[in-house]
Specification:
The chain is α/β, with parallel strands linked by helices. Helix content is 32%, strand content 25%. Keywords: Methyltransferase, Transferase.
Length: 392
Amino acid sequence: MNKQLLQNDVQDFIRKNLKSDLSKLILKGSPFPDVSIQEIAAQIAGLKTAEKKLPTWFQTPGILFPPRLNLEQTSSEITAKYKASLVSGEKLIDITGGFGVDTFHFSKKAEKVQYCEINQELTEISGHNFEVLGADNINTHHTDGLQYLKTSSENFDWIFADPARRDEHGGKVFRLSDCQPDIPANLKLLFERSENILIKTSPLLDLSAGIEELESVAKIHIVAVENEVKELLWLLPKTPSEEVKVKTINFQKKGNQEFEAVLSTNTAEIEFSFPEKYLYEPNAAIMKSGSFAALAEVTGTKKLHINSHLFTSEQIKNFPGRCFEIIDTVEFSRKHLKKSFGGKKANITTRNFPESVAEIRNKLKIKDGGKDYLFFTTNLNEEKIVLLCRKV
């Protein structure tokens, strides 16, 4: 960490060049003898990323940013705040501290927080930022988090871990036992130091695989932002739970969508129907959960087909996803659709349909956009149909 980056004139230069073309700026070289242009460019790039992802870091003068990869892997502020809402108590330890975004927000909920990070540069940068942000209840440690737990006699109300999802060659891994640290192999140690464990994983991790590896899962939080699943959060109490609950949340500008149910893949009790007056498309967090039976029961909707994951009702319902009024239901016919929509605009979605959106647009010459929504899907009679809809 080059502390010369904190000089007022360097900080002013970084802020003034926020909108500059970095490749052109690098060619000009650094105007400061103790700071390289590459270091300046890295800070400008970090500041650009933080503007939307980490507004507190962006708005606070004197913040330093890590290399790009570390910043890409860190939580956004909106998801970090959500994680922090799940914990409480006197003491918490983050054994995979990283850039410290989660750690900082945990410090708002726990009285004392220990931050452990094996990367020395990240530890120094995060420690500096904690001071700038006024988080004086965080102690930083340049050490392996598991080793810290092994050598310390301290117990915690919560242990948090965000295992690195890359192997020693930089390739991505998805099983928890292949991540660093290996959480499944160290659960005994973690539960010796805490009654509660919170783990963040990639949204690509299969839920059943995670439950099998972690053994003691009580609840899974599926967190999406603007309908894109960002992370899975696993709550593990020391006393095993008889059932696993799943909570989905989709953060949106127009209001958050939340849903909670006991995790189950049982579809026996789902009611099916031909399209009624309204059509519903579950948000991405619901889709990840696979809780379609519980969703239908709680919302009072019916499923169009066991493989379509579209729902319908005669009366409008409060539903965690997009809601449409069905204007017309027609049998799939290229000739009819090309005549009705060829050259016009429509938003196209396919669910349980043999052709992709790109193929449909190309064959039917339908442009993207407009107020009309076309859902290409399959009904209960295994017939290919198209639902012409308008957003509610």
